[in-house]
Design goal:
Elements: H1 2-6, E1 9-13, E2 19-23, H2 26-63, H3 68-86, H4 93-100, E3 121-130, E4 143-151
Antiparallel strand pairs: 1-2, 3-4
Helix pairs in contact: 2-3
């Protein structure tokens, strides 16, 4: 795949508008993202289990008949209610995956209008020469004494055979 052969870093824009940086090619990104998803899912499920356990404890001792056992647990119930209030909720990673998928969700990037370029000259060479083999002085020049000027309105096409090492 083309992206795997040219990409060295991947930047993922999440639905929470956060950028997450991944080193490596696209397949490495997919693998790292899957591992992160599994870790996030384990953390989410562990938190849900802990919340349920605390909520069950609170419910059990709130609904019991008044007596010595309940009075002894009042402080524990209040303490656990505070724990629930302060607990930072971990979002369900399955919802993030539904929204974004591997290829990304719907989002829009707006680029503001820019001012016109003051100097339209982008590239200029005079008397450029080029050959591949520096050691062999008799090697033919691919380009010799070439003048090139590229400005903002230039349209350039490079035509030639595609060469592959594969």
């Amino acid at each position: 795949m083309f992206v795997n052969s040219v990409a060295t870093d991947i930047v993922h824009l999440t639905n929470q508008k956060k950028l997450i940086y991944y080193r490596g090619d696209y397949n490495g990104f997919l693998k790292a993202r899957e591992e992160k998803f599994k870790a996030d899912l384990r953390a989410y499920e562990a938190q849900q289990l802990r919340r349920k356990h605390i909520e069950d404890f609170i419910t059990t001792f709130r609904t019991e008949k008044k007596g010595a056992a309940q009075n002894a647990k009042v402080n524990q119930v209040l303490s656990r209610m505070k724990v629930l209030e302060k607990m930072e909720m971990i979002p369900d990673p399955r919802e993030e995956m539904k929204k974004s998928g591997v290829t990304g969700g719907d989002f829009r990037i707006v680029f503001p209008d820019c001012e016109p370029v003051r100097n339209p000259l982008m590239i200029e060479t005079k008397g450029m020469s080029f050959k591949y083999n520096k050691v062999d002085l008799d090697a033919p020049w691919l380009l010799h004494d070439v003048n090139v000027r590229v400005d903002i309105n230039s349209r350039i096409g490079i035509v030639g055979t595609n060469v592959s090492d594969n």
